[in-house]
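Kindly inspect what follows.
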Amino acid sequence: MEENIIKGSAALKMYEKVKAEGRLIYEVMVGSHSYGLNVATSDEDFKFIYIDSLEDILSDNSTTQINVTDDYVGYEIGRYLELLRKQNPNIIEILYTNDRFIKYCHPLFWENIIFNRESFISNKVAFSFGEYALTQIKKAQGTNKKFMNPMDKERKTLRDFCWVGEGQGSIPLKNVIGNYPQWLFGCVAIDHMKNCYHLFSDTAAKMAYSCNEDETVRDFIYINRKYNGIEDKDGVQIKLSSTHKNDIPICLFYCNVEGYSKYCKDYKEYWDWVEARNTARFVENSEPGMNYDRKNMMHCHRLLDMAIEILSGQGVNVLRSNREELLGIRNGQATYQELVDKANIKKNKLDELYKTTTLPELCDKSMMDTHLMKLRKAFYDIK
């Protein structure tokens, strides 16, 4: 199914239209509240399922998803069943949410989907839940890395990644150019030496710049400069200059272009994370010895526990009976490495259960299509 996702203000209008026309067929609270793992700072997240109008379907104007906000997302019934067949953990959980978290359930959704939900589960949950759990570990590791390696707000320049050979080592290029503006220098690439350059200096302009405090003179020097400077206007590449055959370079330097590119990526990722992070969660994870995302690790173990229960025939238990154990993880009652070790043990158990489970290998697509067709026909009153 081709995706047609409605977002922003249009999504809210679409949601209100769906409700007004009676096409909302299922709506539940999801996330920490439905797991019984909510704390005082937990957000309330909701998901809903709706059915497109017959006119939109026949005119090829149907939608697949309505993203009212990040915490309020809806799926068209056809799209929902498509995702359900892939055994996405968040999608499966919607069908098994405890009754007290169900805001609305249309009788046709109950009859055709909820009543038959057991037949929508396959052994693929071993992979979908397991892989999703591992992503939580990676997220926690990523947060750990950011906690342990904070980056200065002042962004480095390409010149900070340039080095000049000296003796048996090297010194920063900035030591060579000193406090002079970089446009008083010029660079020429060296054949057969990747990312290596000769550096030239406009000596006369430097002398005038140093001796005269008059800004108009400095502006004149800039306009009539001999060389083009060291960096391009975006500051991501070395800018080349033309030189006279009698010009003598003051040094040869190497520019670690790849290193600077990685730094820029890490810098953006880090400060995007700082801007977007949940303040309360950040403070919680900043406690001594707990510099990892405990919420990620809690959900890692929740997912593994649920997958083990499903494959061992205990059903899909969204509301967690081991609430205290999971909240203990969030409260920092184990070290990061202890949690990773326990997760690996659970993952091994999941792999073993996969070999013996009686669940089908895949969800029966024709069966799911039949339920979808029956629901649509009954909803549209098609005889």
